[in-house]
């Protein structure tokens, strides 16, 4: 049984999928998003990460089941959970066997083998970094190919999607950009919800602690109220 590396675990998550959820943050991420607020999750081999088997993790998750009710469950997040595919697939399978609703919070930047993972995933929170290859590279520092491959697999599996998109002033904001996002999302099936997330600076202190320059120094968070109209519009035009 393949052990996984866990960054942390949140027992009462309220914003990472439907209902009350336990959020399992897996260690490791290959992207270097300019607005990332968890740079401490980047390195897969981190001395702060906890090693745990799928069986031990799900045994722990089962103890939280009374809090989930009928609408909650478990969300696997990161970092990027797809970078630990064998562990993730086994953990999802065991959650399903235990009757726990499973959600995958991902940017789709994995290793390319998704069948066993998607077979036991009830919902995907899909982090759409950008909708053009050039914009994607400007945001993440990486090629968009891995994301496209994951999205194609998720579409084939017909898994419901909640789309998330971080709005950063000067990078992923403005009428032209959001109109382009709308056109892109209209090409994707099975979207149930679109969330525009305003860029924030809550993780800036982690960069200082790690000795890493912060890429968006001086960029101020947008007023969340300015995104309300576009959020309504995207949910009306892009959701099934």
UniProtKB/TrEMBL annotation:
<comment type="function">
    <text>Activation of pyruvate formate-lyase under anaerobic conditions by generation of an organic free radical, using S-adenosylmethionine and reduced flavodoxin as cosubstrates to produce 5'-deoxy-adenosine.</text>
</comment>
<dbReference type="InterPro" id="IPR001989">
    <property type="entry name" value="Radical_activat_CS"/>
</dbReference>
<dbReference type="InterPro" id="IPR013785">
    <property type="entry name" value="Aldolase_TIM"/>
</dbReference>
<keyword id="KW-0560">Oxidoreductase</keyword>
<protein>
    <recommendedName>
        <fullName>Pyruvate formate-lyase-activating enzyme</fullName>
        <ecNumber>1.97.1.4</ecNumber>
    </recommendedName>
</protein>
<keyword id="KW-0670">Pyruvate</keyword>
<dbReference type="GO" id="GO:0005737">
    <property type="term" value="C:cytoplasm"/>
</dbReference>
<keyword id="KW-0949">S-adenosyl-L-methionine</keyword>
<dbReference type="Pfam" id="PF04055">
    <property type="entry name" value="Radical_SAM"/>
</dbReference>
<keyword id="KW-0963">Cytoplasm</keyword>
<dbReference type="GO" id="GO:0016829">
    <property type="term" value="F:lyase activity"/>
</dbReference>
<dbReference type="GO" id="GO:0046872">
    <property type="term" value="F:metal ion binding"/>
</dbReference>
<keyword id="KW-0479">Metal-binding</keyword>
<dbReference type="InterPro" id="IPR007197">
    <property type="entry name" value="rSAM"/>
</dbReference>
<keyword id="KW-0411">Iron-sulfur</keyword>
<keyword id="KW-0456">Lyase</keyword>
<dbReference type="GO" id="GO:0043365">
    <property type="term" value="F:[formate-C-acetyltransferase]-activating enzyme activity"/>
</dbReference>
<dbReference type="InterPro" id="IPR034457">
    <property type="entry name" value="Organic_radical-activating"/>
</dbReference>
<dbReference type="InterPro" id="IPR058240">
    <property type="entry name" value="rSAM_sf"/>
</dbReference>
<feature type="domain" description="Radical SAM core">
    <location>
        <begin position="15"/>
        <end position="237"/>
    </location>
</feature>
<comment type="similarity">
    <text>Belongs to the organic radical-activating enzymes family.</text>
</comment>
<dbReference type="InterPro" id="IPR012838">
    <property type="entry name" value="PFL1_activating"/>
</dbReference>
<keyword id="KW-0004">4Fe-4S</keyword>
<dbReference type="GO" id="GO:0051539">
    <property type="term" value="F:4 iron, 4 sulfur cluster binding"/>
</dbReference>
<keyword id="KW-0408">Iron</keyword>
């Amino acid at each position: 049984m393949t052990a996984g590396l866990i960054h942390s675990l949140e027992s009462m998550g309220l914003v990472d999928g439907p209902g009350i959820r336990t959020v399992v943050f897996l260690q490791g991420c290959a992207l270097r998003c300019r607005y990332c607020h968890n740079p401490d999750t980047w390195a897969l081999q981190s001395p702060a990460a906890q090693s745990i088997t799928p069986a031990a993790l799900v045994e722990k998750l089962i103890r939280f089941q009374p809090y989930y009710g009928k609408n909650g469950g478990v969300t696997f997040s990161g970092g990027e959970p797809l970078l630990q595919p064998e562990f993730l697939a086994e953990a999802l399978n065991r959650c399903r066997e235990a009757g726990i609703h499973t959600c995958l919070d991902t940017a789709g930047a994995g290793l390319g083998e998704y069948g066993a993972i998607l077979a036991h995933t009830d919902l995907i929170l899909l982090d759409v970094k950008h909708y053009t290859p050039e914009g994607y590279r400007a945001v993440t520092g990486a090629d968009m190919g891995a994301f496209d491959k994951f999205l194609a697999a998720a579409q084939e599996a017909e898994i419901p999607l909640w789309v998330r998109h971080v709005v950063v002033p000067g990078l992923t904001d403005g009428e032209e950009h959001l109109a382009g996002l709308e056109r892109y999302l209209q090409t994707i099936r099975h979207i149930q919800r679109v969330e525009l997330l305003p860029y924030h600076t809550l993780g800036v202190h982690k960069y200082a602690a790690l000795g890493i320059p912060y890429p968006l120094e001086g960029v101020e968070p947008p007023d969340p109220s300015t995104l309300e109209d576009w959020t309504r519009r995207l949910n009306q035009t892009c959701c099934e």
